[in-house]
Amino acid sequence: MKVHRQRRRIQIAFLVLFFVLLTLTVWPLGRVFLGAFLVADPLIALNSIVGGVVRREMLLAGLVLVLPLFLGRVFCGYVCPFGTLVELLGPRRERRLGDRSAWVRKAPLFVLMGCVGLLAFGSGLFLVFDPLTLLTRSAALLVYPAVDRIARLLGDLAYLAPPARGPVDVVTGLLSGRVIFARPLAFQLQALALLMVAAVLAASWAERRLWCRHLCPLGALLGVVSRWSLFGRRIDADVCIRCGRCGQVCPLGAVREDGVATDVTRCQLGLECADVCPTGAITFGRRTRTEGTATYDPTRRGLLSAGALAVVGGFSVYGFQTGRRRDVYLVRPPGAGAESALLGLCSRCGQCMKVCPTNVLQPSLRSGWEGMFTPEMSFVHGYCDYSCNECGKVCPTGAIQALTLEAKRTTVIGRAYIDRNRCIPWADFKDCIVCQELCPTPKKAIVLQEESVVDPKGATVSLKRPWVLADLCIGCGICEANCPVSFEAAVRVRGVQA
Amino acid sequence: MDDRGHPDGAANHPRGSGDTDSMDRRRFLRLVGAGALVAGVSPWATGCGRLLDWSAGRQTASRRQMAAGPATTGTTSTVIATEGGASSTTTAGATGAPRPDLVVVQGSDPAENVRRAVELLGGMDTFVTRGAKVVLKPNVLTGRAPEYAVTTNPIVMAALTRLCLEAGAASVTALDRPTSAARPAFSESGIAQAVQDAGGTVKYLTDRNFEEIEIPEGRVLRSWPLVTDIFEADCFINVPIAKTHGLGGLTMAMKNLMGIMGGSRGIIHVGFSQKIVDLSTLVRPHLVVLDATRILTANGPTGGDLNDVKQLDTIVAGVSPVSVDAYGSTLFDRRPTDLEYLVKAQEQGLGEIDLGKLTIVREQA
């Protein structure tokens, strides 16, 4: 059985699958189970369970969590699409941090305890560093907007040649609303998203797959379970000549310095070691409890300091929120519950932003550090489409509940207020009906009242002036998104108590 | 992939230490590549790529004209006054066949209504020649099911597509610029399916389908980005639905042309009456088919309440959007003169709105 020889192919297949599913995550959604990778993430599932959301699909995450009991961190070596990218884009040869290696070996424990701290304090912030959310978010915020722009440019260039126009229109028609959008996709916080993913990828040059070895919280979690793995790498100490070549090829640095011990919390069963072993001392098989295992066993001091870190981490988040007044323009998507529930549940994966057809869902700027990359509605970018309820459907955590279209259409997320100092009929004494025209509720939440008024020059003019009816407005923001007043809309949506 | 030609040939395995130099170069190249990727992605992603906004930057207005069409379109500005009986006729077509100014067909089958209406106007052959490129402009404001009377009836669209193809059209394209995402809007309205099943295509517009076009006779609107397809078409058919709009306003054929306008939708609506009249001086459809199968009597143009929908089972057709709209206003128990843009259009000689002066053929199917 030489499955490990196919490792790269299997990895690439999962990476391709990941991007195919994510690319298909557009309105209107098909029946494909699109969020599969995120749903299979045990970290996200654990966080959701702590937040009180239990779903049938979490069995998949349970499976991924139990898998290391048999096959160690095989998920990291064969499945994780982000691990694949880290590996493909990183150096191929061993690099080590040198002497600091021993210290950095303890890192996963601290990473995990940090997560536990945030989890215990009801914050999903640690999921920002989950490899699958990191990849989904980076793709949604960086890759797809770039693809949109590049496809547009290529189309524009081809359009210069008149014979190409027909075919370009056909291709554009196929991609329209799927890859190319009416207005090019644009996101807030792109720089931060880019910085994060670039830093993680670049870390591989300090130590090969440094992220996967020491920092990845999902890897750390799976590593803990791997301690009891039934199967793994076996070394026949009698045959081994201590040449050390296995240690040089192991992508995760799971071979300990003596050459015969395995760090099972890191071994991803790539078995490169077996392939280079000149004496054939390394095989894959049933592990015995005592033989050749070297995990980092935390000392009491290590545990205490990690626990302290968890408490400090949790409290710091608590501190972020205490005394902070909610930004009045912070509007959450329909189906998001109370603010604290959203901050606790949201995995910051950005899948809702990927599926949103109008680009209104943006990584949040208005909810502080803890809310970083959670979804907010930015009516500068778009509006909440009256016929769309996809964000709730793709949310892997229940932070945005899946609503039926009927329910979504009556879910109040905010309320529009007209700024009469700037609104054209109020301030400029000219007719403008855009907000009323586009208001999508069956009984319009913005009505026009015909008034006869005296303008500043003393002339009597008849005007249609807009009013917002509070009991009908759902806060979709199509009025704000289309208001013709320059630079800042004269009708703006503010958040309401959920 | 960069392991090709390496002695041990195995993709996942490290090299020996003998070839450090060439490996370093490769690693350097990979670093440069990754750097270039990051540097390349970030400006595109953050919107600094001026080059990519190049298509939106074409500003100089060009002159375009509608195709002449097989029938004279001059009737729009030279309506011959008659005494208003349904039996009187005017000569309008180039063939000399009598053509009424307006036809109004009522019946339970919208497709049959369309067929009969076009027949009464002289048949589709008088509008569409063999091999013609036809563009249909329905009202697809946003995605709503047909029964809400927000978008043009898909059966009407399908019937028109078939008539054009039967008359020998080479292609029939339906296009609009919805206020929401185009593909879901076209599919929820049923128009995408209907047109495609009938043999036509739906075109989802992007920026590059718009071009800044001069409006020589425009009083307020001197130029605006417009869909170029309608100028390249041999036959342009305006297929609006009759709906209320704003306070006391109605949207029918003339206002439907806003869907061929690019740019900021908001700005068009400030003082929009004169602007749509200006647009009508340039964009003169060869045929106008007003869908009044169901009309929206309140909370338009977006609707959403079935109580506001009234079933009339009526098609109004003609070659002048001004006259069609004038008749359309009566469906809502209004007078043509209630609508500012119709009064202005009449003043500018774009069409007759005095129904008494038009030849109208009514038929009960």
Our estimate of the beta-strand percent of chain A is 5-15%
What CATH architecture of the domain at 412-498 in chain A do you see?
A: 2-Layer Sandwich
Taking the alpha carbons of the first and last residues of chain B, their distance comes to: 72 Å
Rg of chain A from C-alpha positions? 27 Å
CATH 2nd-level architecture of the largest domain in chain B: 3-Layer(aba) Sandwich
Number of strands of chain A: 8
By oligomeric state, this entry counts as heterodimer
Helix content of chain A: 40-55%
Question: Which shape of chain A, going by the Cα principal axes?
Answer: elongated
What structural class results from the helix and strand content of chain A?
A: mainly alpha
Mean pLDDT of chain B: 83
Number of helices in the DSSP assignment of chain B: 11
Taking pLDDT < 50 over at least 5 consecutive residues as the criterion, the unreliable ranges of chain A are none
Question: Uncertain regions of chain B: pLDDT < 50 for 5+ in a row?
Answer: 1-21, 46-50, 72-95
Helix content of chain B: 25-40%
Query: Helical region count of chain A?
Result: 24
User: What is the largest interface, and how many residues per chain?
Assistant: A-B, 76 and 62 residues
Mind summarizing the main beta sheet of chain A?
Answer: 2 strands, antiparallel
- Portion of residues in beta strands of chain B equals 15-25%
CATH class of the largest domain in chain B: Alpha Beta
